[in-house]
Amino acid sequence: MVLDLFAGPGGWSHPLKVFGIREVGLEWDQWACRTRAAAGQLTIRTDVALYPTWPLAGRVWGFIASPPCQAWSMAGKRLGLVDQPLVHQAVADLAAGRDTRTRLLTACQDARSLLAAEPMRYLHALKTVGQPEWIAMEEVPDVLPLWRQYAAILRTWGFSVWTGILNAADYGVPQTRKRAILLASRVRTAEPPEPTHAQAAKPETLFGPGRERWVSMAEALGWGATDRPTPTVCAGGGPGGGPEPFPSGARKTLADARELGRWKHPAPGRTDGRPQRGGPAGKTTRGAGWARSLRSNNQANATIRTVDEPAGTLFFGHRANECVWVAEPTAAKLGVDGPPGPAPEAIRITAAEAGALQSFPADYPWRGNKGQQFSQIGNAVPPRLAAHLLAPHVGVTLTRDDFTLAA
Q1: Are 128 and 53 in contact (CB under 8 A)?
Q2: 3 state DSSP class of 328
Q3: N or C end of the chain: which has fewer CB within 10 A?
Q4: Are residues 159 and 88 in the same domain?
Q5: 226-to-107, 113, 197, 199 alpha-carbon distances in Å
Q6: Under 8 Å between Cβ of 263 and 281
């Protein structure tokens, strides 16, 4: 089987299920477990740090781990960086068969930091009873030095190992999400998958295949080249609710939302069906001169991307409305005929939209209230990136035109 530590809502599991590979995920969060159950993924609800390794002896063919990133993420306090020497010590000790986690944990500034050492506990235990054929691990970029430590140890155990930073957008994910990756194998040379996409399309040459242009948010959400969808009004209150989708907190009717959210963005001169960057705004009944962009959070330096670009890295904290669709003046209205009319209000991104921008299927069965769903989505591995990382190790060939996982 394939063992998936910190399995989350199924970022690794979804492509494995599509490939027909048997996988068991270990996960603690109850809502991620419910999402996995609804998606038909086998899960053991457990604390990865406490689960015994002996039931896995001789049964693990592939090994996956994506430890929680909150302690290391730029979206948090990043106490994992303070704790990094302790995590390195834990990895070295576990690789030698010494379990010093309890002592080291008392010195950590963030209790989650040491979870990044847990994969080594499992790998060392499996080493003595039939180690896995291949390994894939993922984390935020700041964890790359730790992955290099893992790599040095795994090479002494007979693995070929590659570590580095990959951008999910280069593999068809509509999001410029950079992650530290470790790939290891006992039967083949470990190397990163060939990118299928680039910021600018590249034609096929004698030296290699071409690359499509990065997938835009509009394409991923099925918005087409000219029309934008009517924003969804989210219900407030109740176990599945939350704050109202408008900053003022006032309840709006569906008709009001449709009027505020209507806009067009034609793409004259293009034949590939994509919006034209900076193109003129189309005629609208309200909000003329404005086009929608996605703002990644409510901080002053938040990433803002237009709908004809991939999203910035999606992350969600205690509020589900940190990521919103905002209106920005189009090029046609800047310095040409005066300021545009009144801007439409910001509209909160929906969980379905956020999931699609992580490359999950549109009908993925998210469970929990809005905050719980957004937390799962923000922490997940994009399935399309996972598919390309796993394909060589499970005997599957993917091409840049293979959109099976996005169906």
Answers
A1: no
A2: strand
A3: C
A4: yes
A5: 55, 46, 23, 21
A6: yes
51 and 165 belong to one structural domain: yes
**197 and 242 inside one domain:** no
Please indicate whether residue 150 or residue 270 has the higher confidence score (pLDDT): 150
Residue 228 lies in a domain: yes
What pLDDT is stored for residue 284 in this prediction? 30
pLDDT tens column, 163-221? 999 999 999 999 999 999 999 999 999 999 999 999 998 888 777 778 899 999 999 99
Q: Return the DSSP state at 114.
A: G
How far apart are alpha carbons 242 and 271 in whole angstroms?
A: 42
Average pLDDT over residues 56-75: 80
Q: Count Cβ atoms below 10 Å from residue 20 Cβ, excluding itself.
A: 8
Where helices occur in 162-283 by DSSP H, the ranges are 217-220, 254-261
Q: Which two tokens stand for residue 274?
A: 């994509």
Average pLDDT, the chain: 79
> Which three-class secondary structure state does DSSP give residue 344?
coil
E strand intervals along 70-223? 134-139, 160-167, 178-185, 197-198, 212-213
Distance CA 179, CA 305 (A): 19
The two tokens of residue 370 are 């809005």
Closest by CA to 369, choosing from 298, 321, 334, is 321
CB 180 within 8 Å of CB 381: no
Which of 42, 184, 179 lies closest to 119, judged by CA?
184
For tokens 């086009």, what's the residue?
Answer: 291
Q: Are residue 40 and residue 158 in the same domain, yes or no?
A: yes
Q: What is the CATH number of the domain that holds 163?
A: 3.40.50.150
Interatomic CA distance for residues 397 and 170, integer angstroms: 17
Q: How many whole angstroms separate alpha carbon 359 and alpha carbon 14?
A: 11
Same domain for 128 and 225, yes or no, is: no
Reported confidence tier of residue 253, pLDDT bands at 50, 70, 90? very low
H or E segment to which residue 407 belongs: none
The yes-or-no verdict on residue 372 having pLDDT over 70 is yes
Q: How far apart are CA 216 and CA 135, in angstroms?
A: 31
Q: What global pTM score does this model have?
A: 0.81
Contact status, residue 147 vs residue 162, Cβ threshold 8 Å = no
